[in-house]
Design a protein that fits this description.
CATH superfamily of the largest domain: Glutaredoxin
Number of strands: 14
Strand content: 25-35%
Distance between the termini: 58 Å
Radius of gyration: 20 Å
CATH topology of the largest domain: Glutaredoxin
Largest sheet: 5 strands, antiparallel
Helix content: 25-40%
Structural class: alpha+beta
Length: 294
């Protein structure tokens, strides 16, 4: 694994594209099974995912760090941070994949984590931390300024190469934006925020270009949907408050998924801890929340 890990530090954007191409080419005749070997960086119990620093998987994925859903519940429970594992990667059509038959083959030190008290994870009714952010126009914003509006927020990053992660979330937000825009009253009472997990790269201009792609190049959409960044310290505080973990290595960010709905008083109404939600489902909750807040 040492040799493979040294290769990962030369991971480039071209390799990201190649990996995604390999992923989709491998899924044409589903399902296919590949063998994974790697070290567990972290566990996400809420979504039953493992973030794994995996060796090269011929025909499927180059060596990298990324999240894997796990359908082997017993194996997931046995695995701890720092473990070296073997597992089967099951790949279906459209790029869907997960782990089965997870086996621990070695123990080792886990990646170091920041010292300090365990952050409080917000639950329904808790108020969101009002940390400063900077949007795509370079303007400072915070959740307090949206008081009186229903706010839908999520975490993404612009260089994410996996279609079922950040691009999917942003497309879903774009669909919600379109639906709300059909009713001026709903549009005025709601707002959306996409927060980057890559503030070092995702500067305002990058976020603006990214956002315009999903707004059909109409900058008026930014009145209702902000693409924001914050400092690394504040980002960790905000992400931790929602139980969201993320890990950066060689230009890639492995992360969980969380979409959060805030009421008009900045308190948590609902949380979707995966990317399986439907646009109609979230819109329904937003509309019911807006009605209750009148």
């Amino acid at each position: 694994m040492t040799m493979i890990k040294s290769m990962k530090f030369r991971f480039t954007g071209f390799t990201c594209i190649l990996c995604v191409s390999l992923l989709f080419s491998s899924c044409k005749n589903s399902p296919k099974t590949f063998t994974l070997t790697g070290r567990v960086i972290s566990k996400q119990a809420e979504t039953q995912e493992l973030i794994i620093d995996n060796d090269n998987i011929p025909g499927f994925m180059a060596a990298m760090t990324m999240p894997y859903p796990v359908k082997d519940s017993e194996g997931f429970q046995r695995v701890q941070r720092g473990d070296v594992i073997h597992a089967d990667v099951i790949v279906e059509q459209h790029g869907k994949f997960w782990l089965e038959r997870v086996t621990v083959v070695g123990k080792g030190p886990a990646q170091p984590v920041a010292e300090g008290p365990t952050p409080h994870v917000l639950i329904v009714g808790d108020k969101v931390p009002d940390l400063p952010m900077v949007n795509q126009d370079g303007k400072t914003l915070n959740f307090a300024q949206f008081k009186g509006k229903i706010v839908l927020l999520t975490f993404i990053y612009t260089r994410c190469p996996f279609p079922d992660y950040c691009p999917l979330l942003t497309r879903q937000f774009a669909a919600i934006q379109k639906e709300l825009a059909k009713n001026p009253n709903e549009y005025d009472k709601t707002h959306m925020v996409s927060i980057t997990l890559d503030p070092a790269y995702d500067k305002p201009q990058i976020m603006r270009e990214y956002g315009l792609t999903y707004l059909e190049h109409d900058p008026k959409g930014f009145d209702h949907w902000d693409f924001a960044s914050t400092t690394p310290t504040d980002l960790r505080k905000l992400a931790s408050s929602f139980g969201l973990t993320y890990y950066e290595q060689s230009g890639l960010i492995s992360h969980g998924i969380n979409t959060i709905l805030l009421a008009a008083d900045e308190t948590v109404v609902d949380v979707w801890p995966d990317n399986e939600w439907r646009v109609s489902e979230v819109l329904d909750v937003m509309r019911r929340t807006s009605t209750l807040s009148k």
